[in-house]
Design goal:
The chain is of the alpha/beta class and 370 residues long. It contains 17 helices and 8 strands. The strands form 3 sheets. The protein has a 4-stranded mixed β-sheet. The protein is globular and about 75 Å long.
């Protein structure tokens, strides 16, 4: 990211766009167009052509023709407008899901938040760019999402100009029943190809400061764990996508987890994001020391015998991971196995010992969450 900042500060717009085109798609899958439907092949070919009246007319005709197909029969869909100009994006995705047949394709395009930042910093001197970007962030990214300001924003904005982080659009697609099969820049606009795989989710996602995450608790019960938000909205729906396209690094975390915001990395560094878990402790779902509550995706990576050992006890806010500092997933499982075996024999003594080990590593060795 330091290279991107250097490029925009030098007002090198074209170089910065090329950097975004390579960095934002570093872990993205690529669609084999040779195996794609003929309509999708033709659409992607025309999309890469230089912008002009003939290209625009072809795309508009394609939109009209494909959306006229009866529900459940469309093979490829392209929205009439790019997503930044769409007020109800989830509604659009749900309508596309209903219109498409199973494994049908939805192609969407939008300007990412990174591109928006690039446009601002390439237009103004650095001092003014910082100020403009701050208020632009509040107006176009915060106000449209908060209940108290949403109506005011759309009342004042004659034309919708919402700004989306790339992660949010990907998460919305998964939330609405799609799997992302390709990401790329076409000209200077981000293009995502998604495939219908299931019906849209029914729950209502949150934009709030506190997020609820579904985790595996005691006796394999699914519980909602509370945390301060450290990821972009809809990130929780990208767990499988990240796992399939990003490698696991030491400690079992995803390599280059781009779902985490800059603010979120600071919260994680000082453990502030964990504070709302005290609610789970008060509700009797968790305890202070114990194995960390895992998502189903992570839980399924564990060996069956470790899974059974974990669900015998309540998960904890401070995991044994920070006492032993294991490096690999196998080492993490062994660390948790030792804890569970000790806890099963001597609960209070085990938690007392692990509490002081964990505090020593956090306070004096400065071990931090990432």
């Amino acid at each position: 990211m330091w290279l991107f900042r250097r490029l925009i500060f030098q007002e090198d717009y074209e170089s910065a766009i090329k950097y975004l085109a390579s960095s934002e798609t570093r872990h993205a899958p690529k669609l084999d167009l040779d195996k794609a439907p003929a309509d999708l092949q033709e659409l992607m070919q025309v999309a890469h052509e230089p912008r002009g009246e003939e290209r625009s007319k072809w795309l508009n005709d394609f939109v009209v023709r494909t959306w006229a197909v009866p529900d459940g029969e469309a093979e490829v869909l392209l929205p009439k407008e790019h997503l930044n100009a769409v007020r109800y994006v989830n509604r659009l995705f749900r309508e596309a899901n209903q219109k498409l047949k199973r494994d049908g394709y939805l192609v969407v395009a939008f300007d990412t938040a990174a591109k928006r930042k690039l446009q601002i910093y390439s237009k103004y001197p650095l001092f003014w760019a910082n100020i403009v970007y701050f208020f632009d962030f509040l107006w176009h990214r915060v106000c449209p999402k908060l209940g108290l300001t949403r109506r005011f924003y759309f009342f004042c904005t004659k034309k919708v100009k919402k700004v989306f982080p790339r992660v949010e659009v990907l998460g919305r697609l998964y939330f609405c029943g799609f799997d992302v099969v390709s990401e790329q820049y076409i000209h200077d606009r981000y293009c995502v190809v998604a495939q219908k795989r299931r019906e849209p989710a029914v729950e209502r996602p949150s934009y709030g400061l506190i997020v609820k995450l579904r985790r595996v608790g005691k006796n394999a019960e699914r519980i909602w764990v509370y945390k301060f938000r450290t990821m972009y909205a809809y990130s929780e729906y990208l767990q499988t996508y990240i796992y399939e396209n990003n490698h696991l690094q030491s400690g079992g975390k995803f390599d280059d987890d781009y779902r985490i915001t800059t603010w979120g990395r600071w919260l994680r560094k000082y453990w502030i994001d964990e504070w709302p878990m005290f609610v789970n402790i008060l509700k009797g779902q968790m305890k202070l020391i114990g194995v960390r509550p895992l998502s189903e995706q992570y839980f399924n990576l564990y060996r069956p015998e470790i899974q059974q050992m974990r669900i015998k006890y309540k998960p904890g806010m401070l995991p044994p991971y920070y006492a032993d500092m294991p490096e690999t997933l196998d080492e993490i499982q062994e660390s948790e196995r030792r804890y569970c075996e000790e806890y099963g024999r001597h609960p209070f003594r085990t938690n007392w010992k692990y509490f002081w080990k964990i505090q020593g590593n956090i306070l004096f060795r400065r071990k931090r969450s990432k």
